[in-house]
Amino acid sequence: MTAVVKPLLRAAAPVSAPLLIEARGVHKTYRTQDGEVETLKPLDFDIRAGEFVSVVGPSGCGKSTLMKMVAGLLPSSGGELRLSGQAVNGPQTNVGVVFQNALLLPWRRVIDNILLQAEIRGLPRAAARERAQQLVEMAGLQGFENKYPWQLSGGMQQRVAILRALLHDPPLLLMDEPFGALDAMTRERMNLELQRIWMAAGKTVLLITHSIPEAIFLSDRVLVMTERPGRIAAAYDIDLPRPRSLDMMGSEKFAVYAKTLRAHFFAQGSLDGH
Questions:
Q1: Could you give the count of Cα atoms lying within 13 Å of 80 in the half-sphere of its Cβ?
Q2: Percent of the chain with pLDDT over 70
Q3: Is 204 helix (H, G, I), strand (E, B) or coil?
Q4: Per-residue confidence at 4, pLDDT binned at 50, 70, 90?
Q5: Cβ-count burial of 105 within 10 angstroms (0-12 exposed, 13-18 middle, 19+ buried)?
Q6: Which run of H or E residues covers position 25?
Q7: pLDDT value for 112
């Protein structure tokens, strides 16, 4: 029997989980010399604590803009955006952010790159070092604490960047194409690693990605965005058991999810890196 995937207006998240992100009519317009440029149409969505949510869409649709707005790094042009019940007005201290490039300081060892978060935030150094060591062990980086970034593979560098973002124990991890610069095999291994870290750390994750398979594999829910000006065209609950193995990508149910998501971009005449 062929699996059926139905688009949902919002996720069937556990009712007991509190809302972590609430967006009501949030939109973004840039002012340029040539006039106003609408980047994001009004968006309405919720993300509950503990969810892993991915956002997919063509280049330039406003995915990264949305992430920066949630982090408070960019102001919205209107609407209401709340994090942990509080309006997002300016940079948020209770989020961790991971970008496509690891952005490690080449003159600092692994443990000191992770502890950079503690220095910036003025956290007690002894407690921060203890937590950093726990994170290193969770990510399987024991023995690499005193290596320099140039001595690590690309995937290991990204693991260090993720641990740095987790050091201050934020409830929300924002990730903007964190594995986009990696080769296909390393990217798959990092998908497994991120799933393991997410399940162990119990965080909420909002992932921006161009990869439909990556979004399906990692997520509880996938939000599909249209071309610019971006809007949420649909949201899909991903009903696959956890922990997920790479073999699951070859299953019929996984293929149906992928076909359904890709249909959005074929309909738009765009299949940019999906």
A1: 7
A2: 92
A3: strand
A4: very low
A5: exposed
A6: strand 19-32
A7: 97
Beta-carbon count within 10 A of 129 CB? 17
Strands of 172-176's sheet, edge to edge? 95-98, 172-176, 204-209, 52-56, 221-225, 232-237
Instruction: Give every CB contact of residue 164 below 8 A, 6+ residues apart in sequence.
Output: 96, 113, 114, 116, 117
Residue 62: CA count within 13 A, CB half-sphere: 27
Cα separation, 103 vs 157, whole angstroms: 9
Partner residues linked to 163 by β-bridges: none
Nearest to 240 by CA among 255, 225, 260: 255
Asked, as a colleague might, if the bond just before 243 is cis with ω within 30 of 0, I would say yes
Asked if 162 and 197 count as a contact pair (C-beta separation under 8 A), the reply is: yes
Token digits for 71? 């982090």
φ, ψ dihedrals at 150, nearest 5°:
-70, -15
**pLDDT above 60 (res 7):** no
The helix-helix angle for 110-121 and 125-138 (nearest 10°) equals 140
What distance separates the 2 farthest-apart alpha carbons in the chain? 57
Task: Report angle CA 92, 94, 96 to the nearest 5 degrees.
Answer: 90
Q: Which of 99, 48, 101, 104 is nearest to 73 (CA)?
A: 99
In which residue are the tokens 């960047």 written?
161
**What distance in Å separates the CA atoms of residue 108 and residue 226, rounded to the nearest whole number?**
41
φ, ψ of residue 142 to 5 degrees: the values are: -60, 140
Average pLDDT, the chain: 90
Residue 67 has pLDDT above 90, yes or no: yes
CA-based end-to-end distance of the chain: 26
Task: Check residues 148 and 60 and name the one with the higher pLDDT.
Answer: 148
